[in-house]
Amino acid sequence: MYEILPYTKRKARDLGVTVTPSKNKNKKLRVVEPSGRVFHVGDIRYADYPNYMRVSPSIANERRRLYHIRHRGDTGGAGYYARELLW
Fold it and tell me: For the chain, percent helix, then strand, then coil, each to nearest 5?
């Protein structure tokens, strides 16, 4: 099960959503919007910004930059929350 780090908790609070570990075995987070819509985001097989920060801030920042380039078109739903909460 994915450990939700303080970075993600802070971002969720800023966005006004609730995050818990996902019960979907392939996903990291279960995101619940105030409207009640639920999204399961973040593939458990891949690292994310908070986890890269544990290894090296310079690597984390480069991986983050590349992630944002790759996913700049994700404007809603699970892709949006993955970018905003995990990167």
Answer: 45, 20, 35
Residue-wise pLDDT for 69-87, tens only, equals: 999 988 889 999 999 999 9
Contact 21, 14 (CB under 8 A): no
Structural element, H or E, at residue 41: strand 38-43
Helices 6-15 and 77-86, axial angle in degrees (round to 10): 130
The total of other beta-carbon atoms located within 10 Å of residue 7's CB is 16
pTM for this prediction: 0.88
Contact 31, 20 (CB under 8 A): no
